[in-house]
Amino acid sequence: MAAGMVACKPVNPDNSNQGTLPSAQKDADITYQINVYSFADSDGDGWGDLKGITEHLDYLDALGATSLWLSPIQDCSSYHGYDVLDYSAVNPKLGTEADLKELIEKARDKNIDIYLDYVLNHSGRGDWFQSAISSADSPYRSYYVLSANPTADVSAGRIDNYAGATNPGMGTWHLASGGSLGYKGRLHFKLDWNKKTITVTQSTDAPQSSNPSASLWLWIGSAGAVGLYQTASGIHEITVDVDTDWGFLIRSSLTSWDGGTKWGGDGSSVKFGTPFNINNDTAADIIFGGNSTWYFASFDQSMPDLNYGPYAKASESEAFKALAASADKWINMGVNGLRLDAVMWIYQEQATANASFLAQWYDRCNATYKARGGTGNIYMVGEAFAETGRIASYYKGLPSLFNFSYWWTVKDRIGRAKGNDFARTVLWFRDQYKSYRSDFIDAIKLSNHDEDRTGNDLGKNLAKMKLAGALLLTSPGKPFIYQGEELGYWGEKSKGDEFVRAPMKWTRTGRIPTKALGGKIDTGMLGSEISVEAQLEDQNSILCMYKAFTRARNTCPALAHGEMKEVSSSTDALALWTMTYEGQTVLVAHNFGNAPVQASLSSYKLDKKIVSNGDITAGKDGTLKLGPFSSAVFEQ
Does residue 629 lie in a domain region? Predict the structure, then answer.
């Protein structure tokens, strides 16, 4: 069967899920997350591309999607796209603007919106950045977090990006440009470990070899680690010939850079004969001379943080205006939503500052959307990678946030075979959000491109993966399905990000887009039977289960929009709740355990099953039996 075909045998006789649901009837607001570079390759060059998505819109439509979240499509340096070089240009590896327009238009015909991933915390090291660090007079100088002396500027509160914090949650200062930062010649180093200072002097004494029994080392130039000699209590010294173009560091471990084992400076230059303070916080390269420019990066040094100035007036900054102008282009082209990357780090985990910035960004983009003639409000979801309690206040800035706690709860409860507090926990999440925004949109999800795959966390157990999918599609909120989740993919992030971003396997034997991933794929996982083609022919496949539940959600208003109410369960593994909307109510039941469970539900109707997965027996007397990891929804 060709990948574009949508027929699926019913998972059970009560699931009328054959064929494609008319697009106009899709009502569940289901988003499908796509890694453009590994989804579908239309031209055989090994890269997934925009045309590949267009060619598979029938598949996405049949899966019940009403929106697609695309990984960054702008010009960039990396395969993943999160180091944007030009916010107004399409990455040529992925296609052209015409390809994007075609995708938007053809998706719209199927009642599918396009959301773009937008990176506001940082950019790549492109023209803006190169100009900014080249001259203090550059028009882009204010776009980045730059300093000649980071420690002094942070202490004095001059780094707007920190929003008053003195120690960011993560990130490092990196040397961008400057004068004679290195040195070539013979130097004597005297490290006072008690005072955490190092004194460097020019020397004519005989050079010493590295101390093989050292407990502290210099890390310098092409020589690498040079062991120091202890000459007194807390005093470590060496005379050595130096040839370095970047300076030096001090190491307190040769096996790890973690745990504060890297010691450096504050961005200023060492002066010969004068003690120089070292630290393991900023730990910047200790340089020998010249004025220098340092830049801050929350993530990798290839992604310098953008600077929006004081958060209350962020929208007045030149960087904000430039990025907003680029967003205007895509919104006016027909994009109906944005996924905002790494929103916690725009102002270094300062929730009030970040929420203020996000509110300004949302209002700006929503004004463009409305001026274009968009229906309602633009959709915008933020990635704040933390538990509910830490990110709830971000709803003061955005209408929607990813609920990472939701997925962490799903995998925890399945792992412990405990379902009877699941609804209560979900309702607690929602209460936190509601306290900040009454019209919040809870973006619920399982795994995504930055986490271990759902299948990996559930031990590659297909029954558990099906349960997780059924939970997602019967919970309140806006569900996101990650590329390959509906096929039962697994993958471990510790092996490399690429292994959780695997290509779609469309047919049993056809090609898959692997070039962007550099061949880092699990060929053992991507066998013929995990393919879309094979799973569409298997009534027991996880793909057919997903299609059954998305169809139920799209055609049942109570599942799509209902208010959740917990139904008490005395059985640990059994989760029960109702969903009610405009007079319609459904009863939802899930077994989180690997043994059958039974409940007496005489107050509820069990004669009209909307959708189910697994072994379900519903008696006329109100007795409900669920097999291991089974799920069912009944109309009331």
Answer: yes
Distance CA 549, CA 632 (A): 10
Cα–Cα distance, 346 to 310 (Å, whole number): 11
By the 10 Å C-beta count (0-12 exposed, 13-18 middle, 19+ buried), 584 is classed as middle
Tens-place pLDDT, residues 16-38: 344 455 666 899 999 999 999 99
pLDDT digits (tens, 9 = 90+) for 582-599: 999 999 999 999 999 999
> What is the pTM assigned to this prediction?
0.84
Q: Which two tokens stand for residue 476?
A: 């309140």
Question: How many beta carbons lie within 10 A of that of residue 39, not counting itself?
Answer: 26
Let me know if 383 is a catalytic residue. Answer: yes
State the catalytic residue, choosing from 383, 452, 485, 498: 383
In the 8-state DSSP scheme, what is residue 122? B
Contact 74, 90 (CB under 8 A): yes
Q: Note whether residue 161 is domain-resident.
A: no
Q: How many domains does the chain have?
A: 1
Which residues, at least 6 apart from 66, have a Cβ–Cβ distance to it below 8 Å?
A: 26, 28, 29, 30, 31, 111, 112, 113
CATH number at residue 600: 2.60.40.1180
Neighbours of 354 (CB within 10 A): 28
> Is 318 annotated as catalytic?
no
Catalytic residue of the set 55, 117, 341, 451:
341
Spatial distance between the Cα atoms of 100 and 621, rounded to a whole number of angstroms: 56
Which residues neighbour 392 within 8 Å (Cβ) at sequence distance 6 or greater?
432, 433, 435, 436
Determine, yes or no, domain membership for 136: no
Tell me how many degrees the CA angle 92-95-99 measures, rounded to the nearest 5: 145
Name the residue range of residue 588's domain. Answer: 563-635
623 in a structural domain: yes
Number of CB atoms found within 10 A of residue 253's CB: 14
Q: Which of 307, 303, 301 has the alpha carbon at shortest distance from 142?
A: 307
HSE-up of residue 114 (Cα within 13 Å, Cβ side)? 27
Residue 481's nearest CA partner among 511, 453, 441 is 453
Beta strand 609-613 with 616-618 is unpaired
